[in-house]
Every structure is written in C-alpha cells, then in structure tokens.
Design goal:
Distance between the termini: 87 Å
Number of domains: 5
Strand content: 15-25%
Strand order of the largest sheet: 2-1-5-4-3
Largest sheet: 5 strands, antiparallel
Shape: flat
Number of strands: 21
Helix content: 40-55%
Structural class: alpha+beta
Length: about 675
C-alpha cells in the first residue's frame, strides 16, 4: 500500500471516529435526558453540601477559644480569648460569655449588626442549650439583612459561650450555583425540610417531610425535578431543582440533529482527508529519500522545496542541514588526519618509549624509542602479546607488574638486556589506564631510560661520602689542638683568648656533628646502618631524652612537659637511635617555640598495635603545603627560618624519618600556621 493510501485511510478513520461518536450520542441523548438531568442535580447538590460542610467546620473552629476558657482562665484571659477569636474569625458578628444567671462577662459585637447592650441570651436556642447543658443545634436567623447562625457552647464551670456567625458568603455561593438560563436553583433547608431564611422553595418541589426523612434523594414531580443532599452533623439539606420542561429535549429532535450532523461531517471529513493525504505524501516521500541518502553519507541528495509553507520550511531546513553535515564531515576528516599526523610526529620524536597495550595483552601501538626496550621492530611488535615481545624475563616481569599497577600509576625500575644478553640500560616503567567514558580501552606505558641519571646520582653520593669522610680527620686534629691551647699545653692564654678558642671549639663541634649526621644519612640510604634492637621500655628512653633537654629548655625559657601513659608495653628497638630521634624532635620543637611557650612530649599505645610518641609545641607552626616535604633531605621551611632561635642543617628530620622507617614504623607531622606543630612517630 502506498504512502498516499495509508495517509488517506489514517486521516479518514481519525476524523470519522469523533463524528460517529457524536452521532451515537445524539441518538442516545433523548432517551437519557431525564437521567442526565437528575445526575447533574445530584452533583450540584453534592457540591453545595460540601460548601455547607466547610462552613460548619469553620464555625466549629471559631469556637476553639472555648478550650482556653475550660482550662480555668480568669476575667482578663476570658476577654483576651474572646478578642483573639473575633480577630482570627472575622465572620463572628457576635461573641459573648454569660454566667448561669445571664450576666454578661465579656462581649464583642459588630456594631453594624448589633446595637449597644443587645444580647442573644434570650434567644430560644440559647435557653435550650443552657438548660440541657449541651451544644445547641445551629439556629439560623436574620439580623440587619444578614443571615446569622447562633452557636451556644455551655461551659463546664457554669455559664455559656454564645456566638453569632455570619454566613452571608455561604448563602451567596449557594445562590450562585443556580442558573437563570436553565431555570435551576439551590435551596438550603433545615433538618425539618423547611427553607432557611433567605431561601424559597420552588413550587411543586419535594415535600418537607420527604426531605426530613432521608439524607439524600432525587425527585421528578409537579413539573419539577432535582436532587437533595444532607449536610453531615447539622441536618441541613441542600436541594437543587429545575423545571422538567427545561431539562428535557425530545428524542426526535436529537435523532434528526444526529443524522444531519453525521451526513454533513462524513462528506466534509472525506474531502479533507483526501486533500491532506495528497499534500503530505509527496513531501514526506521526498524527505524519506533524502534521509536515506544522508544515512549513507550521501549529502548531495537534496529535497524539493514544494508543498505547503510548513513543508517547504522543513525541506529547506533539511537541505541546509545536509549541506552543513557535508561540510562538517569533510572538516572532521581533515582535522582527524591533521591530528593523527601531529600526534604521530610528536610520539615518534619522543626520547621516551611509548606503548599502548590492549585488554587482551597485545600491543596496539609503539613508538621508535620503545624498540630499545622491547627488542623488536615497531611494525613487528604491533599485535604481539607481552610474553612474545619481551626476550628478557626480568624485563617482562617488570612490564607485567607495572601493567597490574596501572590504576595507581606507580613506577618500577628494571635493568633491560637484549636478546644477546647485553645490557641495554636501566629503564623506569610508568603505566596509566586509558578510558573512553566508562569504557577501558587499554593501558598506556611510558618507558624512560634512567641509566645515566642513576649513575650520576651514585657518583654524586660517592663523592659526597668521600668528602664527608675525609673531613673528619682534619676536624679531629683541629679539635684536639684547640683543646690543647685551652688547656695551656703550648703556654698560658688569657681570658679573651680562651673565650675565642671556646667559640672555635663550638664551631668545630657543630661541623663534626653535621659531618656525622651526613654520614649517618648516607649509611641509611645505602642500607649500611645496622640497628641493635633489644627489648626495653620506650617510656624510659622518652623520659631520659626529656631530662637531657631540660637544661636547653630552661635556657630558652620554654616549659618542657612529659605526658607518658603508665604501663606501656615493652617493645624491641635500638635505644641509642630512638633516643637520638626523640632528642632531634625536642631540639626542633624548642628551637621554634618562643620564650614563655611550652613543649609537651607524650607516649601512648596505638590502637592498631605499637606505641606512638608525640612532641607538641606552641611555636610558629608550619604552612600546610610544606608538610609533605618536611622529612626531605636539606629541606627547611622559609617562613619559619627567621623565627628559629638556633640554627639547623635540614638533616635532623631526615635522620628521624630514616630511624623510624628502619624500625618498620611511621613518622608524620600535623600543624597549622601560627598555631604550633605536633610531630609523631609510631614504632611496632
């Protein structure tokens, strides 16, 4: 079936469906006219009853102030309660409190409705409620042209609260539910079925006794039809009525109207469907052909711009889109070629080896520099697995290990040998996972030759150690001769000469300490420092270090405190090195703490095992961005250097870190600028 035929049938069916439905409705409406009218009046009565029920709820809410009075309020409280009720509920035209004798205790009234001294105590509803000590049924009366509902609430301690609630708004809303055009009206009656003040029952409507006997119902008698509903709780009835002749149309009128409507609409719908099918099918078929061409990257298939203005606009937009897609496609191809050429040139020129390994373990890409590491031509490597590419098992294992650590980006160093067993060099492997969105494509591995770099580091370290070691002998000689001069071995010296010699002796001592520290750092780095761990109490070592530092603390006017928890467990450690560690931390803390400050040394068990020792000071503190570099060799914080009360070498914290790590522990620092610092270490 052609596109034109399908469109014609679809449009014809869619258009005839409502026509047939309307015709059926016309044919059935004459029979259901009376039923529909009664149903409509039932809905109106339901709505009117709901409005009245809401008004009754508002009246109950207006009497909420009685709860305050029942709690034993005094005269002032009674007046305030009455005033609050009048403010909260503007429709209260009258609120008063009476004693059992009818004496008025408090009163507020709308002067437009009630005159001075005018009371509701004498109304029949008030007297009945007070006599029977129960809430009164709402009594409706008119005053100053307004419909009012009398509300009486007897009080448990005598007397009653009396109110008049203005229901003018409700009366008006109920009247508005009627329609002069349809001749309908809504009437509010009491529980006895008699109309309320302001309402008039239509002639021929339901009898009062019928309304009083049932809470809901419908009627069609005396030329009037309608329905009524009761208002829950108060017994009122809402009656919706309408003359019968205004509610009915004859079945013949509906049938004639339906037949004429069906014939005219069927002819009109058929003609419109035919025209629409012809107008839509040709442009749509052209759009389909153009879309098929675009899907196959043939953007030269343009659509004829014919038909309705909207269809011409669609065709024009489609053609413009096709032209832009053709330009964009060409631009993207050129851009991708340019990007690939630049990337290939960049990667090929890199001195570091680059390799991309797929999820199946095969090489997807390698550059020329990777040949030295992988030992094969670039063209031959692509498509090989890692096992096939590496001849040296050590290099292969290192490469596989770095692939496994790709998520963390850890580096690994490995000496690589060629297929003949010759040493290629020392290479550093670093890997990163390559993703496209959430999809993992493979692992990118960078291979850097660090042979020369490591040899230079080794040479520098050897020279440094030799120089440091060679300085110790002359320093020992200088120190010895200075001491001999001070002791007068070469003849007497005066006080000024002795003082200057003491300065030289102190400087030589500091230089010797620096050389020893540098040698120890080198030993730790080379793994040549041998610890002598033995069982002992870490608390004793900490206490000893604090006692040794008390003299320095007193000289700097700094309070030095010890806070070691009792019963710390024994552990194995090198007592000499740990004492050196604590003394270094104490020296740093005292050096950066101003006079009048304090340093606290503590020791406590660690929740995961081991003992934690901390040294806290009230000094200058350390900027947060400098904390990660504190334990690096020769590192000093520039911001605090001017605040130090003694000089330093930048090696003390490095030695501390090396001692802790040699014991298998951990050291760290916590600080805020100008708020002091806490250095802690944990030993197992």
């Amino acid at each position: 079936m052609s596109l034109f035929s399908r469109l014609f049938l679809i449009l014809l069916v869619l258009a005839l469906a409502p026509v047939l439905a309307a015709t059926f409705w016309f044919s059935r409406s004459g029979v259901r006219a009376e039923e529909n009218a009664k149903h409509l009046h039932a809905l109106v009565a339901d709505g009117a009853a709901a409005l009245a029920a809401d008004a009754v709820g508002e009246m109950n809410g207006a009497l909420g102030f009685v709860a305050v009075l029942e709690r034993g309020a005094g005269p002032d409280d009674e007046l305030r309660a009455v005033q609050s009720a009048a403010i909260a509920h503007p429709r209260l035209a009258y609120v008063a409190l009476y004693s059992d004798s009818g004496r008025e205790r408090a009163r507020l009234a709308d002067p437009a409705v009630f005159g001075p001294g005018e009371s509701l105590w004498s109304r029949p509803g008030t007297a009945a409620a007070v006599a029977e000590r129960r809430l009164s049924a709402p009594e409706v009366f008119e005053k100053a042209g307004r419909p009012l509902v009398l509300l009486v609430h007897p009080l448990s301690r005598g007397g009653a609260a009396v109110a008049a609630y203005d229901v003018s708004a409700l009366w008006q809303r109920l009247r508005n539910l009627g329609s002069e055009e349809r001749g309908s009206s809504v009437v509010l009656t009491g529980a006895d079925g008699r109309p309320m003040p302001g309402f008039k029952q239509a002639a021929g409507g339901p009898r009062a006794e019928d309304l009083a006997a049932a809470a809901r119902g419908a009627f069609d008698e005396g030329g009037v039809l309608g329905a009524w509903r009761a208002v829950p709780g108060v017994g009122w009835r809402l009656v919706s009525t309408q003359p019968s002749e205004r509610a009915r149309l004859t079945e013949r009128d509906y049938a004639q109207a339906g037949t004429g409507f069906a014939v005219v609409m069927a002819l009109l719908v058929g003609a419109v469907a035919l025209l629409l099918a012809q107008a839509l099918s040709a442009p749509l078929q052209a759009l389909v052909r153009g879309a098929e061409g675009a899907s196959s990257q043939r953007f030269d298939r343009l659509v004829p711009e014919t038909g309705w203005p909207e269809m011409r606009q669609v065709a024009r937009a489609f053609n413009e889109m096709a032209r832009k897609m053709a330009q964009y496609s060409q631009l993207q191809v050129e851009r991708q070629l340019d990007d690939k050429a630049r990337l290939d040139a960049l990667v090929s020129a890199m001195r570091d080896g680059i390799a991309l390994v797929g999820l199946d373990g095969r090489f997807l890409f390698v550059n020329d520099a990777a040949v030295a590491v992988l030992g094969a031509d670039v063209e031959r490597l692509v498509g090989l697995t890692v096992d096939e590419a590496f001849q040296d098992p050590h290099a292969r294992d290192a490469f596989l290990g770095i692939l496994a650590r790709a998520q963390s980006g850890e580096a690994a160093e490995q000496t690589v040998f060629n297929n003949e067993g010759g040493r290629v060099g020392l290479f550093e492997f670093i890997a990163k996972t390559v993703k496209r969105g959430e999809q993992t494509l493979g692992v990118l591995v960078a291979m850097r030759d660090v042979t020369l770099e490591r040899e230079l580091e080794k040479t520098k370290k050897t020279i440094f150690e030799n120089i440091t070691h060679d300085l110790r002998a002359p320093l020992s000689s200088v120190s010895g001769y200075v001491q001999m001069l001070i002791d007068g071995f070469f003849g007497p010296v005066n006080a000024v000469q002795t003082e200057k010699l003491r300065v030289v002796e102190h400087a030589v001592s500091q230089l010797a300490e620096l050389i020893n520290t540098m040698l120890d750092v080198s030993k730790f780095e080379a793994g040549m420092m041998v610890l002598e761990p033995a069982p002992g109490r870490l608390s004793d070592v900490v206490t000893s270090a604090v006692e040794l530092s008390q003299g320095l603390a007193q000289g700097l006017s700094v309070s030095l405190r010890l806070a070691v928890e009792a019963d710390l467990p024994e552990s194995r450690f090198d007592a000499v090195q740990v004492r050196r560690l604590v003394l270094n931390l104490l020296s740093n803390a005292l050096k950066f703490t101003p006079a009048g400050g304090s340093v606290t040394v503590g020791a406590r068990p660690w929740q995961e095992g081991g003992i934690v020792v901390s040294v806290a000071d009230t000094g200058a503190g350390i900027p947060k961005d400098k904390l990660p570099s504190l334990f690096t060799k020769f590192f000093q914080v520039a911001e605090t250097k001017s605040k130090a009360r003694r000089g330093g070498t930048g090696l003390g914290l490095t030695i501390c870190r090396q001692i802790v790590e040699a014991h298998g522990g951990k050291i760290w620092a916590e600080s805020e600028w100008e708020k002091g610092s806490v250095f802690s270490f944990r030993l197992p």
